[in-house]
Amino acid sequence: MDLARMAWRNLKRNKVRTLIAILAITTVVVIVVFSRGLMVGFTESTFRMYIDNFFGHVRITDEEYELREALLPLDYTLDGFDGRGAEEMIGEIEGLDEVKYTLPRIRFGALHSRNDQLVRMIGVGVDIQREKTQGGLPGNVSQGRMPEQENEILVGKGLLNELDAELDDRVTLMFSDSLQSLRGKTFSIVGVKETGVAGLDDSFFYLPIETARDMLWMEDELTEILVFATNPEKLDNFQENLNSFLSDRGGDRFSTLAWNKADPFVEVYYEINQIFDLVYVLFIIMGAAVVIITLTMIIRERTSEIGMMAALGLKGREIMKVFVLEGTFMGVIGSFLGVVIGGLITFYYSREGLYVESFAELSTDLELIVHPVFYLAFNFENLALSFILGSLIVALACVYPAYRAAKMEPVDALNYAEE
Amino acid sequence: MYLARIAFRNLFRRRGRNFMIAAILTLAVLIFLLLESFMIGTMNMSFANIIDFETPHIEIGRKDFFEEAAEGRELPIDETFIAGEDMLQEVRESPGFVALTGVLDFNADFIAGRHQFPVRVRAVDMETFGEVFRNQEYMESGEFIEPGGDGVVIGDQLARYFGLEVGDYYTLRFRDKGGSFNTMQGEVRGIVNTPHPDMNLGTVFVSRDKAALALGLEEEKISQVMVRMDSRDRAPTQAERLQEKVGAGDISVRSYRDGAELLVYLETWGLTETYFILALFLMVGAIGIISVVVLSGIERVKEIGMMKAMGLKESDIVRVFALEAGCIGALGGLVGCLLGALGNIWLVVRGIKLEEFFDLAELGAPVADKVYGTWNMGSFFLIFVFVIFLAMLASLLPSYWAARKDPVEAIRER
Amino acid sequence: MALLQLERVKKIYGKGDIKVEALRGIDLEIGTGEFSTVFGPSGSGKTTLLNLIGALDKPTEGKVYLNGSSTGEMTKNKLAMLRRENIGFIFQDFNLIPVLTAFENVEFALKIASRNGQPSGERTREILEMVGLGDMMHRRPGELSGGQKQRVAIARALVKAPKLILADEPTANLDSETSKGILEIMGRMNKELNTTFIFSTHDPMVMEYARRLLEIRDGKITRDERRE
């Protein structure tokens, strides 16, 4: 008789027992799908924020600038290879095979005085054309539009509140130009940027890079270039090649920074993710423990049956196979149900978002660059991985009890008596 | 009595499986205890850093000053005050009082060379500052503030950004009482490197008499009275008491916790996370208990039938299973607590060097160096009781299922 | 009123279309101190009858009066109390609690029956000695032979001095020599303690020991004879 069919029918002999074992696997797989969805969703959306807003995959700056970034200095700019201008430099970088596109930027500090209070902010000069075709900026415009004219700006939602302004208002900002003289300029607010991330919405405004150059007395210069790779998976390689390209072209003082090394927060999440991979396996092992105890009981109960099978000439391997199959069926069914239920839950929260109050307060207060609402990642890879992990670990866990069943002597097994 | 004896002996009938489930509970307890110890240890350390370097156990200032500060606005120079002798006397007479000092905090731009950076200036009274704060014990180079001098003390990170060394020139630009821009200039007198990262970048120390002069304030004006107490536990209640005694009008007395909202959120978040992880582990543990009870119910169907024939009620049978489950819970809880205690000894004595894992300090939490665990006897007790309770709770439904089986069929089942 | 009285008792198993009529109208009266056997081939309904008498089950139709009260209207807990106080059971496969010793198995039964914790050790020992297990009372069931196990079961049924002891095929799992011993003990207890015994069997040898013989076929009592 077909061993698989026998194992399948055995499953139905005690339905409650089979159900509980399946339920255990389902639960742990749901936990894994959910937590993975949570972690991946959280890290990916956070990483996305870092990449799109601050670093690209690799950010190029002057090495002195990188050292003193917090001061937003305008003294250490990218002025091209041998001072031939940033335009040419961008052209050459974009010519590289591995580079998908670049976003040139100028960042500077600015102030606004309102009711005797100073509001501090960071201005970002952006290449409107490039942002529109490739960058993530236009996607975050919640009201109005991207700036086009020289006196137009896009303002973060939180900053707008700080300025006590509305869309289409005019606002005068103060800033120090590259010659260190304090100047002022009046802009009209043509767009509002809203990411939901306090760290981004509360302090940034965006303007055309030409305007920024003009008002800051800068020439064909930039403070940074965000470089996006065609193949972001091979980041180390990419950064290395970029480095050697820069030094080949005489840009030794230009420094590159990979996005995942830029902020300790990103590194923390990298490592937490790795720790959690182990935790997932741990959870499935705990679920598999329930299958093991169930299988052990089944084998004990069917001792005389095992003796009979052995007496009929079934080999140890075949007996083992029956039990491994029985346990594996439980694992597969449980994992499948877990993936379905977990998938539904993650799908729901990938749309609606999961709001945790204490975290929302924390992320607002800390000005973390993370979204206060968790959007779970719903993807096939997560589901498939959880399913395979669940089925595989359970199948492996069944080997030991099945091996013990196969090792029984037919005579002992037949004469086996409970207690 | 007999039910308990039966339940207890039943535990050893299927040792392997009971131990496996107990092990899951052990794991849950162990992970929870260590996570929590680490969490609270981190928080304690953060609070300790805040108390030693930023805001001590109690601070007294004007309500509006604290409000503006909390909203992230510029610190208002108008909201300073002169601490009356009777107020100070009252504070000195508080139980647990150690020392007090007045500080004058205001915002300024720190300028050196071609760069500038917004900082909080803390003007301090050298006579008493050292009795309350420990900043001057962490000098990297140079010396701390001298009364009446122009020198400033800056954090090592600020120094690194500006490329400054002791003896270099600085300018502080700020607005005085009248609202017009004024500056203070002089030499960097010292560079400090404290375990509280915030204090190493955004805070600059100057002498109070000089600052008051430059701001156009009377010499005795301060923004906060900083009070050091002998213990952290005492601070919130003493702050409340002082609020009633000296908090007349617009004066507000706060404990270190009121000022550190961020940390309080961080604490809540950390605990939420810890409990969430615990809940996931316990969920698996509960399923384990359910499966054990179901399997035992199936195995002992005849025994249960016989017990019912002898006149035991269903509730008695449920009691036997619940007791068994409770014992599994107790075993898991006990071993978990023991291992947790062992692990915690290591955490408390040796500590964890955070940098081995990740740089929490740069996340903005006032943590540097090593984090040590803490002993929370309450947690050990609570988790032990809770695991037993949970195990018994999880056993109820399946044991009721087992107990409800018809005794007639149960006895004859083969 | 007699200890036990059955009036037009029917028991139907199953639901919907598939119904099995296990008992089709039984009238029976058994008095205190009787030593009766229910005899019949397997499937005749004797086990069902014993279950009804033992208050393990309720009749579909008709009434079962035990000690004067009808079981049909009782809740599960009431039935449990009734069994606890009045009935002792002995089963074909002993059904001892494996984690308790012989002594504990018997004492447990006594403890269940007695409401207040009166001293029970003496009584338990006495009963175990009566069934001839005085020197093995601290062994667990796993360490006893089939006959010894059944003697523990008898002691367990007897210890609380019930009005009625029901034994369902008590000797089916025992060899004939042991069976004889078991029946002799049961007979002696019946005489010495005036306890009512009803046991079922399909073994003619065992039947011989009974003083009242009830034959059951297809759910009806076909023979009821008394002998000395």
Describe, in plain words, how this protein is organized in 3D.
- The complex is a heterotrimer of chains A (419), B (414) and C (228).
- Chain A has 419 residues and is α+β, with helices and mostly antiparallel strands.
- Chain A folds into two domains: 198 residues, no CATH class; 174 residues, no CATH class.
- Chain A is 56% helix and 19% strand.
- The radius of gyration of chain A is 31 Å and the shape is elongated.
- The mean pLDDT of chain A is 86.
- Chain B has 414 residues and is α+β, with helices and mostly antiparallel strands.
- Chain B folds into two domains: 198 residues, no CATH class; 203 residues, no CATH class.
- Helix content of chain B is 55%, strand content 19%.
- In chain B, strands 2-3-8-5-7-6 form a six-stranded mixed β-barrel, surrounded by four helices. A two-stranded antiparallel sheet of chain B has the order 11-12.
- In chain B, helix 2 packs across helix 12 and helix 10 runs parallel beside helix 14.
- About 2% of the residues of chain B have low confidence.
- Chain C has one domain: Rossmann fold, CATH 3.40.50.300.
- Chain C contains seven helices and ten strands.
- A six-stranded mixed sheet of chain C has the order 6-7-8-3-9-10, sandwiched between helices. Chain C has a four-stranded antiparallel sheet with strand order 2-1-4-5, with helices on one face.
- In chain C, helix 3 crosses helix 4, helix 3 packs parallel to helix 5 and helix 4 packs across helix 5.
- Chain C is globular and about 50 Å long.
- The mean pLDDT of chain C is 86.
- Chains in contact: A-B, B-C.
